[in-house]
Amino acid sequence: MAVPPATSLHSNHPVVAMVGGGQLARMTHQSAIALGQSLRVLAADATDPAAQVSPDVVIGSHTDLDALRRVAAGADALTFDHEHVPTELLQKLVAEGVNVAPPPEALVHAQDKLVMRRRLDALGARVPRYAAVESREDVDEFARQVDGPIVVKAARGGYDGRGVQMAADEAHAREIAGQYLDSGVPVLVEERVAMRRELAALVARSPFGQGAAWPVVETVQRDGICVQVIAPAPSLSEDAAAAAQQLALRLAAELGVVGVLAVEFFETADGELLVNELAMRPHNSGHWTMDGSRTSQFEQHLRAVLDYPLGDTDAIAPVTVMANVLGAAETPAMTLDERLHHLFARMPDARVHLYGKEERPGRKIGHINFLGADLASLRERGERAAHWLSHGEWTDGWDPHT
Ligand code: ADP
């Protein structure tokens, strides 16, 4: 099928189309504006975070080929705010001449944990011990080999820890894996890594082959959700940081990534780095770059998919702390806007990014960046500010009226 010419208002400028209308698309749109562009978005709903702000929105599903064709029509590149588009649909688009970035053969490594583990193994990257599960017996076989706690993972479809379950014991692992198998979901088991902490290396790669790496960060997780990111990762040796960056750049090149690639690591008790996950899009571990780096991950993603020269990834401050704002179990009576007002009154240096999302328990509704030099105080302020925006209460009992 011939791709019709761009119908956008911006026909003199490149058009990047993004599948998914979430906060990542919303923040990519912000960067597009600065480059004289406007991001075209495929959103499920007109109230989605990016659909609220982009004038160029296609409403439709990421599993509907016609909707994908409509958003891709005339665009210079088609890229993603999530990894849930089926490979077969992307291959059809490629065959029709769409510039899919990252291409489907690369993206599959961010979509399928089994495909990813196998490929990383083959490329010599260290990963946790794992096994594909085809029957309940495979779980027993693996349990005998690792002789320790086991994690059961759906190979596809998970995010923010959904689809990842820590098994209490072998019988439990069998049971969870069995449930996935019975519902036809491909599943794998992994050793539960005794880790010191989690790290992430964020890089970008352009079709020309240019690569750029940001400082390696620590991602602090609570209940399987990232709550804070510290850039750079505290007390990580220069050698370990450089090795993580080099591995991420090598993976980006070997897998043929175009755009931003996030490589999530576990740092084991003896300092070894094991790759946990890959994401081929702007990533939560890179939200700090909006204020803390010379080039934000959102601008870099656009530059990469359009094959522009990549931007400088240096940090602006010695330390940046990013704190996620998660919806509270009970939405506070005070409006979010009023909470924001109070936050600014107390912390004028807070760099706030809100996603225009309705507050729901545990949902990522925004993030706050703090730049400075004193790690402990930045972390404390990040935690306090995020808690305030979520709950409408100050963790130290602060009251502006007393
Ligand atoms: P998702 O793709 O849903 O984000 P991940 O595979 O990244 O899922 O896992 C989510 C979180 O679960 C990780 O950040 C980590 O805290 C924990 N986790 C996952 N796999 C393991 C493992 N093998 N050992 C220990 N913890 C794990």
UniProtKB/TrEMBL annotation:
InterPro entries: ATP-grasp, ATP-grasp_carboxylate-amine, ATP_grasp_subdomain_1, PreATP-grasp_dom_sf, PurK, PurK_C, PurT/PurK_preATP-grasp, Rudment_hybrid_motif. GO terms for cellular component: cytosol. Pathway: Purine metabolism; IMP biosynthesis via de novo pathway; 5-amino-1-(5-phospho-D-ribosyl)imidazole-4-carboxylate from 5-amino-1-(5-phospho-D-ribosyl)imidazole (N5-CAIR route): step 1/2. Residues 117-306 form the ATP-grasp domain. Transmembrane segments: none annotated. Pfam families: ATP-grasp (PF02222), PurK_C (PF17769), RS_preATP-grasp-like (PF22660). Its EC number is 6.3.4.18. Keywords: ATP-binding, Ligase, Nucleotide-binding, Purine biosynthesis. It catalyses: 5-amino-1-(5-phospho-beta-D-ribosyl)imidazole + hydrogencarbonate + ATP = 5-carboxyamino-1-(5-phospho-D-ribosyl)imidazole + ADP + phosphate + 2 H(+). One of its GO terms (biological process) is 'de novo' IMP biosynthetic process. ATP binds at residues 113, 153, 190-193, 198, 276-277. PROSITE patterns: ATP_GRASP. Homodimer. Belongs to the PurK/PurT family. NCBIfam families: PRK06019.1-5, PRK06019.1-6, purK. Catalyzes the ATP-dependent conversion of 5-aminoimidazole ribonucleotide (AIR) and HCO(3)- to N5-carboxyaminoimidazole ribonucleotide (N5-CAIR). Catalyzes the ATP-dependent conversion of 5-aminoimidazole ribonucleotide (AIR) and HCO(3)(-) to N5-carboxyaminoimidazole ribonucleotide (N5-CAIR). This is N5-carboxyaminoimidazole ribonucleotide synthase.
